[in-house]
Amino acid sequence: MQEYYLWIKAIHVISVISWMAGMLYLPRLYVYHASTEIGSQQSETFKIMELRLYRYIMGPASIASVVTGLGLIGVFGMAIFHQPWFHVKLTCVVLMLVCHHALGRWRKAFAQDRNTKTPKFFRIINEVPTLLMLVIVIMVIVKPFS
Fold first, then answer.
1. Domain residue extents for the chain
2. What is the 8-class DSSP label of residue 36?
3. Contact 93, 69 (CB under 8 A)
4. Whole-number pLDDT of residue 45
5. Buried b (16+ CB within 10 A) or exposed e, 103-138
6. I need a labelling partner for 90 at 20 to 30 A (CA). Which of 27, 36, 43, 78 fits?
7. For the residues 135-144, what does the mean pLDDT come to?
């Protein structure tokens, strides 16, 4: 596995960037979508954009991020679980996955014209992936608590 470490790491970084692009953009689409009239041309356009972003970019990128992340854990072995920063990072990754699935539920609500959330709600939600990303990057690069 060591000989593939740099390839796994590169694919992991690429997939995380792709996933985060969607995690940051989809709630912004929801802000605008929540302001449109149900059944309008604009609303129908948002539905298509949201579906494609969630299903064809965020979905595969999240899976690739998790799979390559597990591959990196495999390279480091069980010793990484003794690092306190890693537990913080792993917790934030789990919260990111929870956020991802919540965005998926809200997408389905929009698709079925059942959204009850306000644009302000989605503006606040838009900050969650950003905060999680900041903590994850700091844990991986700075490795505090080591």
1. 2-142
2. S
3. yes
4. 98
5. bbebbeebeeeebeeeeebbeebbebbeebbebbee
6. 27
7. 97
